[in-house]
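Methods — Computational structure assignment.
A single polypeptide chain was analysed. Its primary sequence is given first, followed by the predicted tertiary structure written as structure tokens.
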Amino acid sequence: MKTVFFDIDTQIDFLFPAGALYVPGAEKLLPAIARLNRYAAGHGIPVVSTTCAHAEDDPEFRHWPPHCVVGTAGQAKPAATLLERRAVIPSRPQRLDLAGAQQILLEKQELDLFTNPNLPRLLEEFGAEEYCVYGVVTEYCVRCAAMGLLDTGASVRLVSDAVRSLKPGDSERTLREFVSRGGVLTTVEEICGG
């Protein structure tokens, strides 16, 4: 079964206490995210890593504190989450050149990764039957990814021990909705094995 992993917004501004929009406890995800990404690379599974890529005056900052401004340390992904061969897909229409890429850095300026106009073509090119989703924040960007990928008709697994939330109640509602729509909860160990 053709599978694609989606590593959602695992960037310094979200993962670490000094980050501009820190998700409490998210730094503890780093070993799980690194393991999932390395597992994918070792098994020929593409990894799409969404990354917020904001301008200093981004409209999203009317709703959220400034974070992941392009060129800042906070916008970067921790080295442990990066694979050797990468391609960047900005949030403007362009020709896709994924030759040899293990990891696609899909930039976005909004919560929903589907606001990147290149994503439908990317999904079509992959032709995946299954997606595996993990990262931050469960009830926001992870939710957008998981629900949007379910809408494609593919099978979607969400790695429950490789996500973090801002509000546990909102996270629980998100996970219940995900399962009620046909999504499957899994764990890092179930995916990567011993």
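Note: The first strand starts at residue 3 and ends at 8.
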